[in-house]
UniProtKB/TrEMBL annotation:
GO terms for molecular function: hydrolase activity; metal ion binding; nucleic acid binding. Transmembrane segments: none annotated. Residues 1-19 form the signal peptide. Keywords: Signal. Residues 56-270 form the ENPP1-3/EXOG-like endonuclease/phosphodiesterase domain. It comes from the Eukaryota. It holds the Pfam family Endonuclease_NS. SMART domains: Endonuclease_NS, NUC. InterPro entries: DNA/RNA_non-sp_Endonuclease_sf, Endo_G_ENPP1-like_dom, ENDOD1, ENPP1-3/EXOG-like_nuc-like, His-Me_finger_sf. Residues 55-274 form the DNA/RNA non-specific endonuclease/pyrophosphatase/phosphodiesterase domain. It comes from Cirrhinus molitorella (mud carp). This is Endonuclease domain-containing 1 protein.
């Protein structure tokens, strides 16, 4: 009976969600850009290499035992993973945080834990009951593959998130981020790695459970802000690499703002009041303020997509596909000033520019010249012209009997060119 019992024990252990509290992230440094963890965070926080199996880490987490929330989780985006992982009914906790001498080097189901012991330095599910806050995941369960998404359902990966902010604001941005990255990687033939760090800013005034709702109130700090930083590293061409970040106040009315990674570093340094400046990515991962407007345009398009009638929780997949295709093509060409009104590419030695004229143009690879589409909106909107003028509502971009796309821009019948790829069913 000993051998079968031992085999079953090993089998159950292999399929349980596991983690390891470490003194250094060296064991799971691959989740960080250039194998370098963010700087300027709480040095007393616990470092966790989260994993499902003994030798397969899923992501890395820096966890504050003082606030009982993670300061960040770092992970690598996999475009092949399904977005329909769903929610978990069973949550895990990390015994090594509350009991450092514990020999258990893996997560355990919360229901199987000693709650009084666990509560010493980490949150438990009852802290969230009737609090008005969701268990907001930093590493979203919809990003990892099916065999790994269960590892995200640990209370070391969640922080109190306002329910409205979680289910509307943050959800929309997560969905837009996932869609944008999947299409961008597909456009680049998978020749890139995407490093993501999502984190919190511990607040100063609100803790849960609220007084009067629990015998042990005000244990878990509610973050004032949530943030995400993205590093897109192209394997072959650094001109195609970029980074950006966004941060939002943890309330339904709080907006989410997109910015460069260096600006996000500065804002987090101010919000966290850290003695050392925050730096999320080593060398800020190809930080470039010139690319932010294009990325902002993509997110504006994705977040404001129409939803199916009668289903306010799901997006119109066909609309998303069309917008993504145009937006990513736009990002690829606009960033490098390659796309012209007629859809041609500029010569590498003569990119879009004024070149002594009053408009942007370039010499094209087919031996001609053409005006440039130098704004993202020229490609993804049927109501914006090459000069960024707005078409009249009754005159979206179209051919109207000519060989090029154009529209009237005012009642004086002034007109301007539109970009060739601005719409699929132009008149």
């Amino acid at each position: 009976m000993f051998v079968p019992a031992l085999f079953i024990s090993i089998l159950l252990r292999a399929f349980s969600a596991q983690a390891k509290v470490v003194t250094s992230f060296d064991e799971c440094k691959g989740f960080f850009y250039k194998d370098t963890e963010p700087e300027g965070m709480d040095q007393n926080a616990k470092k966790i290499c989260q994993m499902l199996e003994f030798d397969s880490y899923s992501y890395a987490t820096l966890y504050s035992v003082h606030h009982r929330i993670p300061l960040y989780s770092a992970y690598v985006f996999d475009p092949d993973c399904s977005s329909t992982a769903g929610r978990a009914e069973n949550w895990h906790v990390e015994p090594q945080i509350s009991q450092p001498e514990s020999q258990t080097d893996h997560m355990i189901y919360e229901r199987d834990s000693d709650e009084n012991m666990i509560k010493r330095y980490q949150a438990v599910s009852s802290d969230y009951t009737n609090s008005g806050y969701d268990r907001g995941l930093l590493n979203p369960n919809s990003f990892p593959c099916e065999e790994s998404h269960k590892a995200t359902f640990t209370l070391t990966n969640v922080a109190p998130m306002d329910s409205g902010f979680d289910r509307i604001n943050w959800k929309n941005w997560e969905s837009a981020l996932r869609s944008f990255l999947r299409r961008k990687l597909d456009f680049d033939g998978g020749s890139a790695a995407v490093y993501i760090v999502s984190g919190t800013v511990p607040g100063d005034h609100v803790q849960i459970p609220l007084r009067g709702t629990s015998e042990d109130p005000e244990r878990v700090t509610v973050p004032s802000h949530f943030w995400t930083a993205v590093c897109y590293k192209h394997h072959l061409n650094d001109t195609k690499s970029f980074s950006f970040g966004y941060v939002g106040e943890n309330q339904l009315e709080g907006g989410i703002r997109l910015m460069t990674v260096s600006k996000l570093d500065d804002q987090l340094s101010e919000l966290l009041k850290t003695p050392q400046s925050v730096r999320i990515f080593a060398d800020d991962c190809f930080d470039d303020s010139k690319k932010i407007n294009e990325i902002q345009g993509v997110f504006d398009q994705l977040i404001n997509l129409p939803v199916k009638q009668g289903d306010q929780s799901s997006t119109d997949e066909q609309s998303m596909s069309r917008v993504l295709k145009k937006a990513v093509i736009s990002y690829e060409y606009v960033t490098n000033s390659y796309l012209t009104v007629g859809g041609s590419r500029c010569k590498d030695d003569h990119l879009c520019g004024r070149h002594g004229s009053g408009y942007n143009w370039c010499n094209t690879v087919d031996g001609k010249w053409d005006k440039c589409c130098d704004l993202l909106s020229n490609v993804v909107s049927c109501f914006i012209t090459v000069s960024n003028a707005k078409c009249m509502s009754q005159y979206p971009c179209g051919y109207y009997g000519y060989s090029y796309l154009w529209c009237y821009t005012n009642h004086r019948l002034n007109w301007d060119y539109c970009c060739k790829n601005c719409c699929e069913n132009c008149k």
